[in-house]
Structure formats: structure tokens, C-alpha cells
Specification:
403 residues; mainly alpha; Amino acid/polyamine transporter I
Length: 403
């Protein structure tokens, strides 16, 4: 029971990750390429693993977040983080919100206007966070994610049993325009790399609620559970797309409402129409959790960044940054884009292109003198980290050269 009480930040990581990368990108990967991109899913999860793990490891070993570690490496790093986060926070928020809006439109049927739903969801999340009700939602969402996990695994098993044709695991290595999708697919699989910063903040808050009774080992165990869950579900969603939609002549729509209906149909085709409402609620609530988590986490990170840049540790900039993010996201929907597919693609590609920076910075910090030697990862993790930096940098260069 004591170990269960120590779980939290890793599940919060899973809650933030199991969103666009799984419900949208993984399912679309299966629909378009069958099981052909399983190599990309496995490799990107493997090579991103150490850099995400470094977040809770550093925080629990030192008592400070990754941001404070970046600042110790040099003021320039915290400035780079500031501008990178400023460049990606709006695209991340708009991408997760438009998917949530599509599911809300499909579930409630009040309106098909994605601008209306997106702004309404942004305002609702903003109010919930200002009222401090997020902790209650977080407790509920863990149960919803469990429901979605069980439903997804069950739907995949039924889809496999209903499949009459042989399953091909021939791997596909796309080029040209399809390379853009692969980069976008890997960009948020299992999550954008900057969530490692959020995780380091979450784990410190968890430690405080437990009266500092949270060890590095506890934090890594919690993280591994959350990370493993995201990997398994990524494979399941890819499998559902491959088994139900690949070679069927059907393609996923880029319209939020239509896509949501197709996604829910993946479940009801396998689990039965009676499960429609349960699945629709689970999918919507999961995406709503991702939306509210990102709306909360980015401003927290930017508040801490502002404190470090301005040397004002006692000043809280959270209200300023959450207001900027909420207003900026709403303006994107009103003035620029409402096409779900394009929003998701922009956000995920930007996240992939910035991943090598976060990977290199996390690696540099975790093996620096700022990290207690006894808590530094071993030789195998070091080799995996270097391989991950090469992998992420290599694909980013390949993509940029293909433009």
C-alpha cells in the first residue's frame, strides 16, 4: 500500500502522453502503413527512454527541477529553453485541444464547430486550474486511463481474433512525403521531450506531499510503470489501425469531429455498439486530461524559467503564463488554423526537431558534477543515451535535408 501511495508523477506522465501520440498518430500509422512502422515506435520509445528518466532521477537526487539544473550548466541554456518552449507551447496546446474538441463534438452533439469547442474547452480548463480543482480531476482520470487501457487491449485482442487474413509484419521505411508523417509520428511518441522538465517538477511536488519520503528508486519505479503503459498502448493503437482500417479503403479524416467518430468506431466494431458511450467518454476524458495537463504544466515550467532568468525566486509568474497560453491558443483557433491534421503535424514535427536539444542537455546535466555521483546512471544507460542522441539528431537532419 505504501508503494501505491508513492505512485503519481509516472501516471501523470502517462496521462499527458496518452493523447495525440496514441489516439491520433499511432492509430493513423496503423491505418496507413499496417504494422510497417512498428520499428519506428519501438526505436523512438527505446531511445527517448533515458532522457525522460533523467527528469525524476535528477529531481529526487538533487531536490531541484531540471530547469534549475539547466541554469547551473549556464544561463544560455535556460534562455534557449525559454525560446524553444515559447515556440512550441502554443502548437502543443492547440493540437491537443483540437483533438479533444473533436471528441467533445462527437460525444455531446451540440455543435460541429471546432472553433467553438476548442475555445470552450480552453476556457473550462483555465477556470478549473484557477479554482484549484485539478487534483480532483487527476484522481478521477487515473481510473479513466485504466478503463481506456483495458478497453484498448480488449479491442485489439478481439480485432486479432476476428481477423481472417494473415498479419504482415513487413516493415516500411517511408521516404518523400511519407517521411514527414514518420517524423511527426515519432515527435510525440510517447510524448514531447520537454515533458521531462514537467516530470521533474511533478516529482518534487509529490515528494513534498509525502513529507520528503520519496527516494530515487521510488521515483524511477513509478516512472517505469507510466512509461511501460504508454509503450504498450502505443502498440495497441497502432494494431487497431492496422487490423481494422489498413487496406480497407477507409482513411482517417483530418476533420476533428469526423476523426473522433472513426476512432470510436474502431472500438465499437470490436467491442459492440453497446460500448459506444463508455468508450466515447473514456476517449474524451483522456484527451481532456491531456489538454488540462499541458495547459497547467507549460505555465508552471515557464514560471520557473522566468524566476531563474529574472532572479526572482519568490515571485510566481504562473497566472501570467497560463493567461498568455490560454489567450494565444484561442487566437490560433480564431485567426489561423482549425484543421486538426495540420495542427497535429506542425506540433509533432516541431517537437521532434527540438528533441535532440533536450536529449543532449539532459545527458550533459545528468553526467555533470551537479548530479551526485552515486545516483548517476550506469554505463549501459550512457551508451543508450549516446545512441539516442545520434538517432534523434540523425532523423532530424534527414528530415531537414528532404525539405
Amino acid at each position: 500500500m505504501n508503494n501505491l501511495k508513492k505512485l503519481g508523477p509516472g501516471l501523470l506522465f502517462a496521462g499527458a502522453a496518452i493523447g495525440v501520440s496514441h489516439l491520433v498518430q499511432s492509430t493513423r500509422a496503423g491505418a496507413d502503413f499496417g504494422w510497417g512502422l512498428i520499428w519506428a515506435l519501438i526505436l523512438v520509445n527505446l531511445f527517448k527512454y533515458p532522457f525522460f528518466q533523467f527528469g525524476p532521477r535528477y529531481a529526487l537526487a538533487t531536490g531541484e527541477s531540471l530547469l534549475e539544473g539547466y541554469n547551473k550548466l549556464g544561463k544560455s541554456y535556460i534562455w534557449i529553453y525559454f525560446f524553444l518552449n515559447l515556440a512550441t507551447m502554443f502548437t502543443i496546446q492547440t493540437a491537443v485541444t483540437i483533438v479533444t474538441a473533436g471528441l467533445a463534438s462527437n460525444l455531446f452533439g451540440i455543435s460541429t464547430d471546432m472553433v467553438y469547442w476548442s475555445i470552450a474547452i480552453t476556457v473550462i480548463c483555465f477556470i478549473i486550474l484557477l479554482l484549484g480543482r485539478y487534483k480532483l480531476l487527476d484522481k478521477v482520470i487515473k481510473g479513466i486511463i485504466l478503463l481506456l487501457t483495458i478497453s484498448t487491449i480488449l479491442a485489439l485482442l478481439i480485432a486479432i481474433s476476428n481477423n481472417d487474413s494473415s498479419i504482415s509484419f513487413t516493415q516500411v521505411f517511408p521516404y518523400g512525403s511519407d517521411l514527414l508523417f514518420v517524423i511527426a509520428f515519432m515527435g510525440w511518441m510517447p510524448a514531447p521531450m520537454d515533458i521531462s522538465v514537467w516530470h521533474s517538477i511533478w516529482v518534487l511536488e509529490k515528494k513534498q506531499t509525502l513529507n520528503n519520503k520519496l527516494s530515487v528508486e521510488d521515483g524511477l519505479f513509478d516512472f517505469n510503470i507510466g512509461y511501460f503503459t504508454t509503450v504498450v498502448l502505443g502498440i495497441c493503437f497502432l494494431g487497431l489501425g492496422a487490423l481494422v482500417m489498413h487496406d480497407s479503403g477507409l482513411t482517417f479524416s483530418n476533420k476533428g469531429g469526423e476523426f473522433a467518430g472513426q476512432l470510436i468506431d474502431l472500438y465499437t466494431l470490436n467491442l459492440g455498439d453497446a460500448t459506444y458511450l463508455v468508450i466515447a467518454i473514456a476517449a474524451f476524458t483522456t484527451m481532456f486530461s491531456t489538454t488540462i495537463t499541458t495547459l497547467d504544466a507549460s505555465p508552471r515550467a515557464m514560471s520557473k524559467t522566468s524566476q531563474l532568468i529574472l532572479n526572482k525566486k519568490n515571485k510566481d509568474f504562473y497566472l501570467l503564463w497560463i493567461s498568455i497560453l490560454a489567450v494565444g491558443t484561442s487566437l490560433v483557433f480564431l485567426l489561423l488554423l482549425t484543421e486538426m491534421g495540420l495542427l497535429v503535424q506542425i506540433a509533432t514535427v516541431l517537437s521532434f526537431l527540438t528533441a535532440p536539444f533536450y536529449a543532449l542537455l539532459n545527458y550533459k546535466l545528468i553526467y555533470s558534477n551537479h548530479m551526485p555521483e552515486k545516483h548517476r546512471p550506469g554505463f549501459k544507460t550512457k551508451i543508450l543515451s549516446i545512441s539516442g542522441i545520434i538517432f534523434l539528431s540523425g532523423f532530424s537532419i534527414i528530415y531537414l535535408l528532404s525539405l
